[in-house]
Amino acid sequence: MGYYSTLSFEGKAEKINKEALENLNKMLQEDKFQGFGDMAVKFDNEGNLEIESSEYCAKFYDNEKFAKELAKVIEKGYAILKFTGEDGEVWGYFIKNGSFEYAEGILLPKRIIESLNLSNLYSCK
Question: Fewer CB atoms near the end CB (10 Å): N or C, the chain?
Answer without folding.
Answer: N
